[in-house]
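TICKET #2291
ISSUE: user wants both folds in one file
ATTACHMENT 1:
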Amino acid sequence: MDRNSVNWAGPMPAVTTPFDASGAVDRDGFTANISRLLDEGATGVVACGCTGEFWTLSADDRRTLYTATVEATRGRGTAIVGVGCVSAAETLAYARMAADAGADGVLVLPPYFVKLTDDEIFAHFATVSAGSPLPIMAYNIPGNAVNAISPALADRLAALDKIVAIKESSGDWNNFYATLIAVKDRLRVFCGPSSVFGVPAVTLGADGTVDCFPNVWRGCTDLFHAAKAGRMEEAAALQATCRLLTDLFVTEGRTIYPATKAAMDHLGFPGGGSPRPPLQPCVGEPLEGLKRGLAALGIGS
């Protein structure tokens, strides 16, 4: 398999996982959010990733979410679900669960917490590739996972049969662009922080974007379409707002995942609510500052 084995492309938002008052997965809110995002121009979704608080999800939660993702996207877009775990065996167990649910592909990040060599990361992906029933989108997010997929390592991973795409979420333009150059002829390359540099990424050949901000503002979805169509004045304006939105969500006592859910609630969108511990809801002055910031950007006003 390679990039030509799948048709994954375009803006595919990283969706939140909403929980009800008892802390259980809110399936209805989850599917309603996916439906809204598809209505707004998304070409698919990525569920159960970092935005989806995958580290809190039980096996039953994942089964529910995998099935709900497939049902919500059926006939409308691509369904990719996160299965990454520290061990290859657990990763493959979730990959099989995703296949049973009917997902199109799986998102796999390197084993996290313990610092690994490139050879150890490669060995993990080789084992997962050999056993996965579904094509794989590798996930580079060293700020969360500790372990990074460098451009050189991405080049090695591109030779593994089931790896057909990479979500490059390092937040480092040089790393993103070097990865794009190294693998774009074999892997579909998705820009993670499209809110930061999505327009240049798409302009230079990225196949798509995967970002949390479409949950809050459709402009982050429109950004891909504008850049792809060459509407550069529109794309530049959207990029500027997205950049300010990113800053808003990670300053003055706010962190990105609780702030995303709080913004969704404030704007009246499904799929928000409180995060699961250890994350805490965005409340008090951080929440009020978030509301003021959204209004200043013309979002929801």
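ATTACHMENT 2:
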Amino acid sequence: MSTVTVQVEEVKQLVIKKLTKEKVNKAYAEQIADVLTHADLRNVNSHGVLRTEHYINRLRAGGINPDANISFRSTGPVTGIVDGDDGFGHVIGNIAVDHAIKMAGENGVGMITVINSSHCGALSYFVQKATEAELIGMAMTHTDKIVVPFGGKASFLGTNPIAYGIPAKTKKPFILDMATSNVAFGKILQAREEGKEIPASWGVDENGIPVTDPNKVVSLSTFGGPKGYGLSVIVDVFSGLLAGAAFGPHISKMYGDLDKKRKLGHYFCVINPSFFTDKNHFLEQMDQMIEELQQVPPAPATERVYVPGEIEQLHEERNLEQGITIASSVYEFLKK
């Protein structure tokens, strides 16, 4: 597969132009482009501008409301609900996190559930936004079934990612963003696009047998066996049941039924450390923890110990200067 390296601002403008041509208002298009290029900057290309074509296909089929009237309803001092009106999850997630940040600033904690949403992109974007305000962020979202429960043959759960962002004083924030499957399905899509084999632990065929050909993957596997399975159910409870949304096999498909609104749920929580401890001391301790983790002697054949999110942050620093690398086919689509 051929690739091309392009400055992030050029790619961002191409995405905005594509979306506004589809009657997405420019403010929404700018936010979507920001979330997508955030992923590409971190070399998480499976959640980057690669997704633009799919979003446009769903828009054209009627599965996304391009000009959603997103609303917020406060249900208590630290709780609220955002109704996405079937719009873009990237925009809806931004609004939800902003409300959670405001609540956490005033009352120590902000917890927001989201209903009537769609795919929102990389959760790291939203928890990082909390860390920029020196707050702790947590995010969860359910997805349509593609993952077999531990011990099962047929899929029931989604990739159901969970993310945490924790600020530090001088160090970059600790960012943990992971699917509860061994990998996100976007990684399978990327392998298909690139014509590459995958590890056998990533997915199984229709008989539940692990495969290395990404084109034969029918279902994904959970990470850590029963541990990932358990966490996946928790994500479905928080972002699905708690939001009054569907769960598991009852969620409409992302890559099918393009004319149907997906009605996804999300969960966001923001915590203000200063309501629990001295914030400055907390931030300094995070610096110390990160520093000491990085200084742990590396195992054989390992360069050094990295903290979660650090490798992606190093990619981002480099790519902001050198540009992001995407598939040539994706670039050509954006330029059409």
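RESOLUTION: both attachments delivered.
EXTRA DETAIL ON ATTACHMENT 2: The chain has a mean pLDDT of 95.
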